[in-house]
Amino acid sequence: MTSPLLRLRILHTNDIHSHFEQMPSIAAAFHELRVSAGAEHTLTLDIGDHMDRMRPETEGSCGSANLAVMNETGYEAVTIGNNEGLTFSKEALNNLYSSEASFKVLCSNLLDSATGKVPSWGVPYHIIEKGGIRIGLIGVTAYFIDFYTLLGWDIQEPIGVTANLVRELRTQVDLIVVLSHLGLRNDEKMAIEVPGIDIILGGHTHHLLEIPQRTGDTVICAAGKFGQYFGVVDVQFDPTTRKPVSIEGYARSANDYSEAEDDRVRALIERFEASSNQVLSQEVAYLQQPLAADWYMEAPLGNLLASGLRKRVGVDIGLVNAGQFLDGLAKGPVTVGRLLEICPSPINPCLIVLSGKNILQALEEALLPEFQKKLLYGFGFRGKVLGMLNVDGLRIEYDLNAPEYSKIKQVWVGSELLAIDKDYKVATIDMFTFGVGYHSLSKGKEIQYFLPEFLRDIMQAELQDPESIDKSSVQHWFETS
Prior knowledge:
- With 481 residues, this protein is of the alpha/beta class.
- It folds into two domains: 6-277, Metallo-dependent phosphatases (Purple Acid Phosphatase, chain A, domain 2, 4-Layer Sandwich); 282-479, 5'-Nucleotidase, C-terminal domain (5'-nucleotidase,  domain 2).
- The protein has 16 helices and 25 strands.
- α10 crosses α15 (455-463).
- Residues 293-431 form the 5'-Nucleotidase C-terminal domain.
- Keywords: Hydrolase, Nucleotide-binding, Signal.
């Protein structure tokens, strides 16, 4: 008599980005799917960017809200995304994962630069047994070497690391699953270049694979973004060889479970919402006058940020897009939470050496509606549109009636005219160095990133300086006829 096939169910999420409103539904779905398959046959995983510091629950709890929800939902292993690894300090991650995580944290390609080893709260891989099947888990995160180095991490090239671990684990396990916060193209590359991977669970590029993609002998899965979907993979194994004979999966909408929310997860979220709001109510400044923001014309709040960037980096020019602000500030107290509301992006200051030609091109484009109204998402940006450029250290004369790319008449850097063939040190934001928004601002050299400060940290310091506030109303853009 033929023995029945062995079975495994994998539940997975990725790139939830602190969308807490989806988490009770996902928890309810996972509970139902775990019961139907049997807990001993079910493995629950997250592929990174569960946290996002734009959300009050995450910011106000330093990520504890996410950890509590993940524990309650029953995750057994996760890898970290860039939103965990690059927006939290080493100390914060240590406090979170060392004391609060009830799951394994896979850090296969992230080493502590001080020790050369995986952090104490992580593991390079994990072998877990489910229903008589041994599963080897590998977790790799995006290869942002410049940023990780500044935070004290030694990030390793992920595909090479994965290849080495697959060779090590292949004879020890029946199934190899890679938790990959690398993006779909890199997942496809990995599937081609690294033999022996059975399943890649992906994330980072927010791609949704409603039906798994098969590349060679590897099945690639992903569940989109923001907790709108979750993934299910059902695997059957030959009971004698322990080799998979079928791997089938799908992505399902969390909205299908919106009426079956997990009450315990909902209660956790409500508790952290209340405690986080209390933390974020801390007053950091008091304004004697309102500070307006405007996406399409020069405004004091944008000028204040450009000035703060210039001051922080210590150079002659500050440039930042007006779309970093979702709103202005009213007269009266300014709280930590209000700064988060109006400037939620986890974007860092940077220094870049740019030619006068590239600066001029960006200033010309800052006058064009197609740039000002350009919709953006990703690369740390949590706003709505790009907006014009706010500046400091410049005086710009322009004619709106002139042809495109001929509107700027003169630009002064201090008391000197901008020279097309001269290089200038510019304080700006990391987003521009990725070729996002004003593309000429990505063509510089000698880039230096300043971590762990966010733009709202720069703003907090500037709002405490009355002289900086007074200077924010000084005009930099002058329209001529």
